[in-house]
Amino acid sequence: MLINNCYASGNAFSNSTAGGLIGYCSSNWTNSVLINNSYATGTASADNECGLVGRISGDNITVENSYRLPTICDNFDHVGIVLTQDEMRTKSSFVGWDFYKIWYYIDGINNGYPILLLRISK
C-alpha cells in the first residue's frame, strides 16, 4: 500500500491512539506500507499512543520524507520528522519533495504550509 503526497491539518483526539495523519497502520492488512512525502499540522492527543501515525503494527512499514509539527504528540511518537512552523513554511525543509509538479506554496493559503498542486488535463 502506498500513501503518497498527502497532508492533514485537523486535530485528532482519542482515549486510545490518535494520529495527525493516520490513526492506525498495520502491515498485516497488506504485504507492506510506504508512507511518503506527507505531513500533519494538527494536534494529535491520546492516552496511549499518538504521533504522525498513532500506532504502527507489523514489520513492513516504511515512512519516508514525512513531517509533523511538535504539537502532534507529547507522550509518544512513532514517525515523522519534527519541524517548526517556520520550517514547515520553507521548501528546503521538505527533502525529496517535488515543488514543481506536485506541491506548491501560496501566501495566505493553508497557514503558509504546502498544498497539493491541482493540474487538470484534457
What's the rounded overall pLDDT mean? 84
Order of helices and strands: EEEEEEEEEHEE
Major β-sheet annotation: 5 strands, parallel
Low confidence ranges: none
- What fraction strand? 35-45%
Helix % is under 10%
What does this structure look like?
The protein has 122 residues and is mainly beta. It has a domain of 83 residues. 3% of the residues lie in helices and 43% in strands. It contains 1 helix and 11 strands; from the N terminus they run βββββββββαββ. The strands form 4 sheets. Strands 1, 4, 7, 8 and 9 form a 5-stranded parallel sheet that branches. It has a two-stranded parallel sheet with strand order 2-5. A two-stranded parallel sheet has the order 3-6. It is globular, with a radius of gyration of 14 Å. The protein starts with a strand and ends in a 6-residue tail after the last strand. The model has no long low-confidence stretch (mean pLDDT 84).
